Amino acid sequence: MKLLWSFATAAHSLAQCPRWERREIAIVGRSNVGKSSLINALAGSKGLARTSSTPGRTQALNFFTVGEDLAVVDLPGFGYARMPAEQATKLGALMEEFLTRRATLAAMVLLVDIRREPGEVERNLAIAAARRRLELLVVATKCDKVGRAERVAARARLGALGSSINFCSVVNNEGIEPLRRALLAVGRSAASSRRGGPVEA
Fold first, then answer.
1. CA atoms of 33 and 55, how far apart (whole Å)
2. How many angstroms separate the CA atoms of 36 and 34, rounded?
3. Per the domain annotation, does 197 fall within a domain?
C-alpha cells in the first residue's frame, strides 16, 4: 500500500523540530546531488519538495510525514562554494545537532552522485550514523548517466560508506520503488526496536 506523503514544517533549530513519536529518516547529501528530486520521486509527487537549478536552496530542516508513523527529513545540502561562510557554518552546526541529538531519528539516507568520489564529509556522515547505530542507506543518484562499467566502479567506491548500496535515477525511476520499500522497512523496524533518548554529541 502506498502511503501519503505531506510537507509538515521547516525548522531552523532543534527547538523548532516537531514534537511527535514518528520515526524519522534523514536525507543527506551534497547540494547538487538531487535530494529534493528524490523525495518527490519517492512520494510520487513532483511538487512536494521544492527543487531548483541553483544548488544550496534548502537552508532548513524540512519535515515530510509519511503515513501515520514515519517522517522523512530533508537536511540542508553541503559543499556549495557560493554560500557565505557564515551561513554554511550555521547550517553545518544545525545538521550536526540534529544528527547527534534528535531522539526520534532512526535512519540516514546518504546520497552520492554516482559519478563522484565520496569525500570527507560523506565519510564523516557514515561514521556519525554508525556511532548512533542508525540504519544507513547509501544511494547512488543519477544512475541514468553512466554505463555498467561505471556502476561496478561506483559500487566499489561507495562500499566504504556502507553495505546497503542503492542505485537510483529520478529520470527513469530506476531503484525508486525498492528504495521506497527500504524506507518503510526501516520505519517498521524502528517501531519495534527504538532505543529512544537523545545522544550526546
1. 9
2. 6
3. no
What CATH number did the domain enclosing 41 receive? 3.40.50.300
Assess whether pLDDT exceeds 70 at residue 168: yes
Cell numbers linked to 34: 538531487
- On average, the pLDDT of the chain sits at 87
Contacts of 18 (CB under 8 A, 6+ apart): 8, 9, 11, 63, 71
Indicate if the alpha-carbon torsion angle 108, 111, 116, 122 is positive or negative. negative
CA distance 112 to 32: 10
Residue 86's domain comprises 5-192
pTM above the 0.70 mark? yes
Task: Provide φ and ψ at 83, rounded to 5°.
Answer: -70, 135
Q: How many domains does the chain have?
A: 1
